[in-house]
Amino acid sequence: MNVQENYSLKNHNTFGVEVSAKYFAQAGNFDELKNALEFAKARDLKTLFLGGGSNVLFTENFDGLVIQLNLKGISEKILNENQVLVTAKAGENWHEFVQYCLRKNYGGLENLSLIPGNVGTSPMQNIGAYGTEIKDTFVNCTVLSLETLQTEVFDAEKCDFGYRDSIFKKEGKGKYVILEVSFKLTTNNHVIKTEYGAIKTELEKMGIENPGIQDVSEAVIHIRQSKLPDPKVTGNAGSFFKNPTIPLEQFEKLKMKFPDIPGYPNGNAVKVPAGWLIEQCGWKGKQIGNVASHELQALVIVNKTGLASGKEIYDFSSLIIGSVKERFGIELEREVNII
Ligand code: FAD
Ligand code: EPU
Predict the structure, then answer these.
(1) Which one of the ligands is nearest to 129 CA?
(2) Are residues 326 and 193 in the same domain?
């Protein structure tokens, strides 16, 4: 294991923020991971695990050991005539994993195409898009407890998944490293989900009437490319905030004042698109210094000039929170992990 000192993390966070780690190591296998943890323990260093760095905002240099997980490998076990269990190690790139499954005609992850980051991070916030979340196909994940240094298997119930949420963001925060994740996928009779957002319209544009899983993946890719900035070109971490859920009563009051407010009811609560709230406050496309709200998707904050500091991005997000709170009385919650 090679530990580097005063290491730049600019290429390890999709915001492209220039920060450094006091120490940095890559763990390509379990032994290297254990060695890295021993290195940190011997020096009483705090540790931070990184996958693709696509959901973090560094607001300062990291005064400890950053461990990038590069564990690779995919294995499969046929369960029955219609289902397969597919297990991928933490360091596998998420989108490449989805493409691998599509090539094998394994269905269930196609709506999650083109989400940046790694497989090992996918349970952290129960990644979701276009009507699917990983909890829909998730079977379990193997984790290393940082307290006991023993591995444990967490099933979906133990992961306590919610909207952009899991045990790993709550009581399990900082306590476990996710080593591999298993999904139950279909080998035939795939369930095709085209109800959400613009998928149907996109498939029509593509001239497809009876879509297969590959078609759904392509439609999702087209939609995402049409409105989300490519982090390789403009630094960002996807949606900066979660879509807030508010009580039905509060939504109805807001509806009287703002008749156009969109909302997706769920029992006695309503999910309101944060992008709409932010746009209404005049932030869409607005730039302050090096930071802006994306011109095609107000919910995405971008490192517009490539020179933004994490603090600048964080302060910009605080201004947005303040505006939305003042105008709508709704407190936006950051989705991105602030480090
Ligand atoms: P990182 O940013 O490396 O890490 C995120 C957090 O997880 C950090 O706190 C880190 O310490 C921790 N962590 C990382 N690996 C592990 C591990 N193995 N064990 C324990 N903790 C770990 N997300 C969605 O849900 N849906 C979307 O549609 C979506 N679209 C996006 C679009 C763009 C353009 C971008 C840039 C991001 C988008 N995201 C989306 C957010 C992001 O892709 C996901 O959150 C992704 O799962 C992050 O993976 P990562 O490996 O990059 O995580
Ligand atoms: N909207 C606006 N203005 C905007 C952006 C959005 O008014 O600038 C409104 C519109 O009413 C639109 C609605 O918001 O219909 C929803 O917008 P969109 O379909 O773009 O989705 P989103 O709610 O902004 C969520 C996820 C995305 C995910 C997409 C597709 C969250 C926080 N974000 O975005 O996930 O890809 O749906 O399923 O739930 C991420 O988590 O990083 C992410 C990109």
Answers:
(1) 2
(2) no
